[in-house]
Every structure is written in structure tokens, then in C-alpha cells.
Amino acid sequence: MTKLMILLLPGVVAAFTSSSRSKATTTITTTRPPQHRLYSTYTDYSDTTLINIDEEAPRDIPSMEQWSYEMGAQRTEGFTLTSDDGGFDVYAMTTVDLPTGSPVLTIPEHMILSSTKAMAELRSTDMSEAEKIINSVNAESEFRQYYLMLKLLVEYEKGVASPWYQWLNSLPRYYTNAASMTPFCCLCLPSLMRKLAVQERGYLQRLGVSSIKLVPYLNDDTKYDVDLCTWVYQIVYTRSFESADGDLKIVPLADMFNHGAYPEIESSYDEEGNYYAYTTYDVPAGSPLRMSYGDPTNPSFLFARYGFLDDSTEATFCKIMPEHISKEMEELGYAHNKMLFYKDGNVSEEVWDILLFQHLSSTKIGDKRALMEAHRTGDYATKQMLHEKYFANTSAALLEHIESFLEQLDKLSEKACDRQRDLGDHPRLPLILAHNDFVKQTFLTVRMQNFGY
Fold it and tell me: What is the pLDDT of residue 25?
């Protein structure tokens, strides 16, 4: 598909300052947004009240860029927004070479939406009934996200009077993450991904209409609009990130940075709450500008939360999920970001350690104690001796796990393929099939590397 791109016009040079960065005196070019439409025509806001949240509604990127410029956002020469799919996914890139440590973007504090500011504005004794619902479903940990959702609903109701109207109208309406999937879609996912999907959908259910309907300052059309509540949920959970002080923040324009396993961008805030983005290494012209959304070795979480497949990751969780995970297993390194299968077919040390521990737990208690003692004292020679002694057992366990998981994947994909004719009801099925195939290819490579077929 033809790549669509906004071409930036030259502007004036302004100081890019940050008290938390050594290169704070570097200058950044403030560029005016283009005077043309990226995907259709500019929205005529004089006759518009509420934003169209239909999944196929176009994203008005140019008006958002004009708004960000007028609000004081600054961006370096070469920073541009583009799309490879006609505007569903819009992301930042650079059209010029950017050296390491280059300032890329600064967003003034007053443009930033935060959970702290939302709670200060919207939380009161009148919210006690709504909060009781949140507490009753054990979702107290999600209060920050909840009040950010309410802030977005308040701004949505204001229509064009909202300071964030143009930004809201630039956001995606169509999502492919777990919260957007049908129950049948979840049934086509492997165990870990299904668990994460159920968890994500649970957040949506707990923070949705059941509690929002008790918010006193929202009108009834808003409170009972399931699609609208889902949309603001998606915005908060896919575009907010925690700052060092524990605040959840959504930074307009910076929220156009996609995820990368090797991000080009790092973010920071100064004491006044202004946002800064710098390059982490030399970035050549034509490259995307990406940040990190989370652990790149856990593509299942990235898929569940954000709805994309990160095929740039070098490894993925091995999917070994015991019914009970003991403290000793955690001590040996049982964690989703350590129990890894690599795309080149290698297996992480932690996987072998856990397989050995499981085998010794049911057969050789004395050697299990020796394994734990060797691990705790850093006695590599003893650990290696135990691995060699029981290699036939652990390799057999590894192969059994690979074979059974591949069989599970085939059955799940077959189930999804049987329903692909119902794409109108389950439009995320093709992406689920791609996810399952991505995992399958990694498992097949590990099997080939370790067992020769």
C-alpha cells in the first residue's frame, strides 16, 4: 500500500530545555503542521459536537497537529506522522538523520492528561457509590485508569468546547487487542494468551458501564453507551504510561510513538511536568521513532494489551506453566521474561533449570537439594554435572512439551479457520491466526535446533 506522509514545513527555532537532561541546551525546530489533509478533508468543527466513534470513522490527524502546534508542542525537523495502512495505524518517523541524544519532541504540561490531575478534578464524596462498585470487584488498583476514563468522558461530552477535542478526534476507533475480541476469539488463543485476554477483558468489565452509570456528573447518554465506555477504556489502557512518580500520563502527539524492541526514543519529564523525548542512538532518515511499551520477550502481553504482533522480538515465553510455582522455582528463575525460547532455536538456561528441578522433585530429592545449593552458591560445576546426569530426562520433557503445545496450537488454529467465514462477527480472527503461527514457528525452530526435525 502506498505510504501516506505528512511533509513538515520549516518553522522557527526555539530552545529545548529540560532540567533533567544534560543536553538540555540543544535546539529543536518548531514546525508548523501541513495545510493539507492526510486521509480526507479537515473536519469542520463549527458544525460538530460529539466525536464519531464508529470503528470506520476517519482519524483527523492534520487538525490534531495544528492544535498541538498552537498548544505549544515542539518537534524536531524531520519528525513526521505516517501510515502504512490508510490511516488505521498512524506512527511517528524521522525524515532526517538524528544523532544519539537528539531532542525529538517536547510537550508542555498543560497538554498532558494524567491520573493525578483527573482524580484531583473529579474525585469527591459524590463518587462514593461508583467507587463502591470498583471496590466490590477488587479493582482498587485500577483507580488511576478509571479516573482517566472519566476525564475522557467529561471531555467527550464537551464536544468542540473541550481543549482536547482535536486530539480525541485523531485517535483510532478500531482496536485488535484482547478487550476488542469476542468470546469465541478468546477460545482460539493458547493458554497464556487466553489467560491474559480474559484478564484484559475483566478490566474492561469492572471499569465499564456498571460503575460509570453511577457517576453523578455524566449524562445518561454517556453512562449507558457501552461502545463509548469501551473506547475510552481502550484509549487509557493503550496510550497511558506510568511516570517515575507513579502517575499515569497520556501525552498527546507522543502517543504516536509505536513500540519497538530496540526503541529509538526515551522519555522524561522535568520538575514542572513537561515531557521530553530524545533519541537513544543514531537514527537514520526514514526510520520509525519508537518507544518501549513493555518487555519485548513477552509478545503475548503486547498482543493482549495493544493488539499487535511484535515479530522483532528475539525470544518468547516457552509456555511452560506448572499448576503450582514454588518459591524454589522462582529462585531458579521461573518468570515469563526468563523462561524463553529464542527465534534461533536456543533455549534459556532457566528453562533447563526448571525442567531439571521438576524431574528431581519427583525422583531424586537429594539431587534436588544439591541443585538448589549449587544455584544459591554459584557452584556452576555442580549444576552442570546434574544437568549432564539427567539430560536424557530433561530433554525428553522438553520435547514432550513442544509436541503437546504444537498439537494444541494446531487445534486452536483449526477452530479459528472453521469460523473465518464469520469475519463480520469475529474480525480479529486473522490476527489471532497470525499470532498462533508466530508462536508455532518459534517452537518448530526450537525443536529443529535441539532434536533435528
Answer: 37
Residue 28: Cβ within 10 Å count: 21
Q: What single string gives the DSSP state of each residue in 197-246?
A: HHHHHHHHHHHSHHHHTT-TTS-HHHHT-HHHHHHHHHHHHHH-EE-TTS
CB atoms within 10 A of CB 3: 9
How is residue 98 annotated by DSSP?
A: B
For residue 162, what is the DSSP state?
A: S
The DSSP line for 273-339 is --EEEEESS-B-TT-B-EE--S-TT-HHHHHHHH----TT-SEEE-----S---HHHHHHT-STTTS
**Hey, what's the torsion of the CAs at 25, 29, 32, 38, to 10 degrees?**
-120
Residue 90: φ, ψ to 5°: -115, 130
Cα 185 to chain center, whole Å? 19
Helices and strands in the chain, H and E counts: 17, 16
Sheet holding 241-242, edge to edge: 113-114, 248-250, 241-242
CB of 64 closer than 8 Å to CB of 169: yes
Q: Residue 114 in contact with residue 67, Cβ under 8 Å?
A: no
Q: How big, in percent rounded to 5, are the helix, strand and coil portions of the chain?
A: 50, 15, 40
At 160, is the secondary structure helix, strand, or coil? helix
Question: Cα dihedral sign for 450, 451, 452, 453?
Answer: negative
Phi, psi of 98 (to 5 degrees): -125, 115
Give the closest residue to 147 by CA, choosing from 107, 110, 118, 189: 118
- Name 294's Cβ contacts closer than 8 Å, sequence gap at least 6: 259, 301, 302, 305
What is residue 35's predicted lDDT score, i.e. its pLDDT?
43
Q: What type of residue is 280?
A: T
Q: Which residues contact 350 (CB under 8 A, 6 or more apart)?
A: 332, 333, 334, 335, 338, 339, 340
Q: How far apart are CA 270 and CA 291, in angstroms?
A: 18
DSSP 328-370: HHHHHT-STTTSEEETTS-B-HHHHHHHHHHHHHHH-HHHHHH
Lowest mean pLDDT among 129-143, 161-175, 438-452: 129-143
pLDDT bracket for residue 11 (50, 70, 90): very low
Which amino acid, one-letter code, is at 125? Answer: T
Among 355, 353, 328, 350, smallest CA distance to 340 is for: 350
Helix or strand holding residue 135 (H, E): helix 128-136
Q: What angle do CA 106, 112, 254 make, to 5 degrees?
A: 50
pLDDT of residue 1: 35
